[in-house]
Specification:
Layout (H helix, E strand, L loop, with lengths): L1 H14 L8 E2 L6 E6 L2 E7 L12 H14 L7 H5 L2 H14 L7 E5 L2 H12 L4 E6 L4 H9 L3 E5 L4 H10 L4 E7 L11 H10 L3 E5 L14 H5 L6 E6 L9 E5 L1 H10 L1 H4 L6 H15 L1 H27 L14 E7 L1 H13 L2 E2 L2 E2 L9 E6 L6 H14 L1
Parallel strand pairs: 3-12, 5-6, 5-7, 7-8, 8-9
Antiparallel strand pairs: 1-2, 2-3, 4-10, 9-10, 11-14, 13-14
Helix pairs in contact: 2-12, 4-12, 5-6, 5-10, 13-15
């Protein structure tokens, strides 16, 4: 019965063009990749990685990871609260707390295995029965799932509609109020209005939880993230940043008031009951932070901005010349550039046409994005050359 039930649902997904497929990469992370799909190997130009600064295969980080493995081995052996918390974890948390200290006075950081685990920890540990969560409807799945698992009531507001959020805050009767938002929205690339959200938090005695998965390392002075980008500073800020995207390695962290960090350490199930990330990863991440904050990081961020401007100018010209296509390019000044084409089949067809030309650009469909907004999620990296972006634009012109 179970297999029949699942097969029926799989057929229904296929009929709606919602089947997901994996491709196996045969080369290190980078724009020029070797990929195997359905038994066929080919070289592709990839526009689908979140390696925004092109650090995932950087020689200095490869060397740092090898050095860390040589000093501390390849496994941690236990959770952080048993025997898995090594000196590199401790040093990394201190570094990260320093990064966020200008935005969060006295910040303390806690290192997690993934951003998903960090968000589950935040919302379930802080969202008890005395709290209400206020969440943007386009928040990442990890924030949605964390809210559903929390004991708090969760109220969602339409994307970016802070007038609706303010009404919800005014009507709220619980003593604890937590506003939850992505900083850079993962499928649209737009930025939340963090200054206005923080103003609402301060006026309504709330806390602001910010998921900066796609802003850390890319935005703000020295790549310190979205809070620094907007010049924010408040004790009411609770920050989650991931370290497997712009930082090029793996993991995530929460930076917040020391009491909040201590509470997470004591009660967050996704922190307590999981084996710690190997110390070698934390060692490599410390080297990544040095790169991001230094001259090389600045050069890579500048290069990324050049590629963003180039792509947007080319897409805007294409859309203006071919309005009958019905394609849309929403506002985004980040590495995430969504080309919205409409229905699922059109998005899959366009992605397949690009793949035939050796370009790897994934089609994103519901439920990841709202119904009727299937798209190509084009992600850019500092490792992309000007010619790479021109090749993508030429292929899109041909496919249109």
């Amino acid at each position: 019965m179970l297999i029949e039930h699942l097969n029926r649902q799989l057929r229904e997904r296929a009929e709606q063009s919602l089947t997901r497929q994996r491709r196996t990469t045969l080369s290190p992370c980078g724009p020029h990749a070797r990929v195997r799909h359905e038994g066929v190997e080919r070289s592709v130009l990839a526009f689908c990685s979140n390696d925004y600064l092109g650090l995932a295969n950087h020689p200095a980080l490869v060397a740092a990871l090898a050095e860390g493995a040589g000093r501390w081995g390849v496994g941690s052996g236990a959770s952080h609260l048993v025997s898995g918390h090594g000196e590199p974890h401790d040093a990394l948390e201190s570094d990260l707390a320093g990064w966020l200290a200008p935005s969060i006075p006295g910040a303390k950081a806690l290192f997690f295995g993934t951003g998903y685990l960090a968000n589950l920890a935040l919302l379930t540990a802080l969202g008890d029965a005395r709290a209400t969560l206020f969440a943007d409807k386009l928040n990442h799945a990890s924030l949605i799932d964390g809210g559903l698992l929390a004991r708090a009531d969760m109220q969602r507001y339409p994307h970016g509609r802070l007038d609706v959020l303010e009404g919800q805050l005014q009507r709220c009767t619980t003593p604890i109020r937590l506003i939850v938002t992505d900083a850079v929205f993962s499928m649209d690339g737009d930025l939340a209005d963090l200054p206005a959200l923080l103003d609402l938090a301060e006026r309504h005695d709330a806390w602001l939880i910010v998921d900066d998965a796609h802003g850390f390392g890319v935005l703000g002075p020295q790549g310190r993230g979205s809070l620094a980008h907007f010049g924010l500073r408040s004790e009411r800020l609770i920050y989650m940043g991931t370290l497997g995207k712009a930082a090029g390695v793996a993991g995530a962290f929460v930076a917040a008031h020391p009491t909040i960090a201590e509470w997470l350490l004591q009660v967050a199930r996704s922190y307590i009951y999981t084996t710690a990330v190997p110390s070698a990863i934390a060692h490599a991440l410390r080297a990544s932070l040095e790169l991001i904050a230094g001259d090389e990081g600045a050069r890579r961020r500048a290069s990324l901005q050049q590629r963003i401007r180039q792509l947007r100018a080319g897409l805007a010209d294409l859309i203006a010349r071919r309005p009958s296509l019905g394609w849309r390019l929403p506002e985004s000044a980040t590495a995430i550039q969504p080309l919205i084409v409409g229905d699922n089949e059109r998005a899959l067809s366009l992605s397949a046409a690009l793949e035939a030309e050796g370009l790897w650009v994934p089609a994103i469909r519901p439920p990841t994005v709202p119904l009727g907004t299937a798209r190509l999620r084009i992600t850019l990296s500092a490792a992309h050359a000007e010619g790479d972006v021109e090749r993508l634009l030429a292929a899109l012109r041909a496919a249109s």
